[in-house]
Amino acid sequence: MSVIQRIRDKGAWIVFGVIALALIAFILQDGVRRGGGIFSNNTVLGKVNGKKIERVDFEQKISMYSRNGVDREQLITQLWNQEVTNAVMDDEYNKLGIVIGQRELSDILYGQNSPFKREFTDPQTGVFDIEKLRAALAQIKKSKNTEQLQMITDGYINPSVQQAKQQKYQSLLEHALYVPKWMAEKQLSDNNQVSSASFVYVPYTTISDTMAKVGDEEIMAYAAKHKSEYKRDEETRTISFVSFDASASSADSAATKNLLISQRNDFATATNMKEFFSKNTTESPFYNGYVSRKEIKQKSIDSITKLPVGGVYGPYLDGNSYVLAKLIGVKQMPDSAKVRHILVATHQPDQQSGALVQVREDSAAKKIMDTVEMELKSGKSFDSVCLKYSDDGNKANGGVYNYFTTARMVPEFNEFSFEKPVGSKGVIKTDYGYHYVEVLGQKGSSPAYKIAYFAKPINVSNETDAAANTAASQFAATGRNKQQFDENLSKIGKQAIPSGEIKENDFNIVGLGSSRQIIRWAYEHNVGDVSDQTFRVGDKYIVAMVTSIIKPGLPPAQVLRPQIEAIVKNEKKAKQIIDSKIKGNTLEAIASSVNTTVQKADTILFNNPFIPGVGTDAKFTGTAFNSSIKGKISEPVAGANGVFVVRVENLGSKPSNETIETIKSGIIQSERMAFYRGSEALRKAAVIKDYRSKFY
What we know:
By secondary structure, the protein is an alpha+beta fold. It folds into five domains: about 1-175, no CATH class; about 195-230 and about 560-655, Chitinase A, domain 3, CATH 3.10.50; about 235-245 and about 460-550, Roll (Chitinase A, domain 3); about 250-330, no CATH class; about 335-445, Chitinase A, domain 3 (Roll), CATH 3.10.50. It is built from 24 helices and 24 strands.
C-alpha cells in the first residue's frame, strides 16, 4: 500500500544514513588501504592463481547480501564468479600498474557517481549533500564497528574501486585499438561487391537419414578434430531418480474441509471479526474496510456478493486452501478518491522483517498532530505544514495521493477517503501513526463490499508424509544396484527420470529444482550406486542412482551425439551426393542428373548474402564471389544445408554511403564489444582451485 511504501522508503534513508555516516571515515582512513581484509582464517574456499578466497570473508558477503532478500544458493554462485573475476582482473591490473589513488578514491566516494549518493541524497530536494556528509565524517572517524565496516567495504567501497579499475583497463585497451587504412579500404571494397550467379542446389534432405547413420567412432573422430570446441574443463555427472509423492492426499483435503465446516457456525455468528481472527488463524488476513466490486479478484465472488448481510458461503476450494466467506456489509461508494494528508508516524516497517517498529511515542505524535491542526486552522498553507511535519515520503508534493481505488490504503485511511464527502478534513489513527486527511475529490460510484475470508491451507498430514517416506525408504533399501533399481521400478510401475549433466557446485537439478543434497551425494558415489537414503525435495521423496561420470576432456559419444550427429550426418550425405548424384560438365547437365533446375541469383550482396531457397551460407558466398570461376562452373561444394555447384555470371560493385572512416569506426566498435568477453578468456587461462563443494 502507498502509505506503507512511503514509510518504508523514508525508513531506509534514515537507517542507512546513520550507519554510513558512522563508518565511511574509518574506511577512508584504514579499510581501503588494507584492502578490506578485516577477517581471515585458514579455511580456504578456493584459489585463483594461488590467491586464496577465504570462506569467512565469503560467508560474510553472503550474509550481507542475504539481508536484501536475495536467495542464498543463487548468491553463492554469483559471489564465487565475482571473486574469481576480481582475482583474475587484479592480476592484470597489477601487471599494468593500474591503481586507484587516494584522490581518485575521494572523487569516487564524493563525486556525482558516489556509491552512497542514493543514501545521502535528500529525498525531498534531490540534492546530494556532500558538505553535510563531510561534516558528519569528521565527527565520527573513530567508529570501530568492524561488522558494519566490512559490510560497507564489501558492498560499496570495493565494488566501486573495482569498477574504477575496470574503466581504466577498458580505456587502456580501447586507446590501443588501431585500424590500418588498407584494412578499411579492403573491407569497404568487399562490402560494395555484388555478384550474379547461376547454381544447382541439392539439399541434404534428399538423402534419407537411414542412408547416413553415424557411429560412435565417427562422433569421436569429429570431436577430436575440433577438440577446442568440445573439450570440457570440469567433470559432470548424471543421475536417474524416482520420486514418491508426499503432497496432500484427498484425505488431507477432506480433513481441512471438515475442519472449516466444524467452525462455520462460530464464524457465522461472530459479531467482532477482529476478535474472531485473533483466536482463529487464517491464510487471508482480515481487511476491515469496504472494497469496490471492481477491485475484488477473489474466487466465487459472484456467489458471495449475492449473500444477505451476515451470510456465509463455503467452504469452497481456492488454490491450496478451503475458504469460508462472510458478507459483513454493502455500501454504495466512489470508485476512486483523491486526498492529501500529513502523517506523524509512531511506527514504521523494519527493512528486513517488515514488522512495525516504534519510532515515536504515541503521546509525542499526538502533540505534534495538535500543532499541525493548530497551524492549519491559523491559515498556514497545507503544503508548508506538510513539508515541515509529515513523515510520509510524498510530503514534497503536498502529501497528495492522486485518484486511487479502494483497498490500496490501510482500512482507517480507506474509510475516511471513500466514506467521507469531498471537502472533509480530520485526524485518524492507524497502526502507523496519526494522519491529518483532507478529501479533495471522488469519482464514480458502485457497490462496495466488506467481506471476511476464513481460509485454511490443505496441509500434508503426518500419515501421508510417513507413507511416502516409507515407500521411498523401502525402494532404496531393496534396490542397491542398477539391476535391482530397474526391477523395483517395474514392480511399482514407475519410470526413472534422467537428469541433465550436473556440475559439482550446482544447486539445482532440471526437473527437481533445488537439490544440493542429491548433488553432493552423486559426487561422493560411483556409477550404479543407489542412494541408501531418501531426499526430501519439495513435496516429494527422491531415490537416486548415479548413471554416468563425465571426466574433463572430450566427453563420450553419447554425450556429444546431440551436438555432432547432424554435422557428421550432413558430411556423409554430402559425400554421397557428390560421388553418386552430381554428373555432367554443365549446370544444365548437373541439374538433370539430380532431377532439379538451374537457379539464378541476380544480386548477391557481399555484406548481406541471403539467397532465396538456400539461405545464408558462407561457403556459397565465398564461391559466388570467386572471380577465378567467372563463366565457369565450380567444383561441388558441401554447404551448411546442401551441396551446390556455382557458375559466376558477373562481378561488380554498387554505390555506397560508407566511407573509410565509418568502416574504421565500425571495426573499432566491434573490437570494443569483444572486450566484454576478455575477462572470460583470462578466467579460462587462470589456475582455479574450487573447493566449494566441501562447504556447501
